[in-house]
Fold:
Amino acid sequence: MKKAHIWRGFFYVLGICFLSIGITLNTKTGLGLSPVTSVPYSISTAFSLNFSTVLCWYYIACTVLQILVKGKKSGWKEIAQVPASFLFSAVQGQFAKWMSFLTPAEAWHSWALLPFAVLFTGFGIALMVNMELVPNPADGVPVVVSQVIKKDVGLAKNFVDATLVLVTLTIDLLFSRHIVSLGAGTIVAMVGNGRAVALFDRLFQMKVKDLSGLLICANNETNLYKEES
Structure:
């Protein structure tokens, strides 16, 4: 069981790193920000605010939304997202600094980076969600939405991303009077991130859950339910 805990922690941290890399790559392409970061970036631009600060408050708002939707079913995972918001925004900021050398010189360089941005983002989300610990607040929202609409997380991610793009477009046009953070890359990410989550789950979900001991726990809970029935 101790080995399973180590794997679980490893996959969770790897998920945070993958997500940070994906978001940074999406920004570096210059083809438009990812749907998740487009809203706080538009707000920071429209009102001349620090992006990291707005991102942190955006994460907290996502946490509050989850608590409101889940109501009495909310638990420690939702509450823990508030302090975790500071951690996630700091990690993403650090990866942005480490990857500052990435500056596409040609248009095709940007398009070549985009698939990697989508895969890293989707795989990072999937790893964090599958470890059933504290999710990135922005990615905890699709999980809650998937439970409400009774669809898989990948499809819920597509729905949430489309909503975020519409919100960003509204903020840009109302306050900045032009499109600030959206582009072709945003649309690709809006569709591709959710599909990348679904791809990861199809290829690796059972394996990572097995190594992390979560598959055994799920089977035990199922057996216990059958015995009680």
Observations:
- DSSP finds ten helices and no strands in the chain.
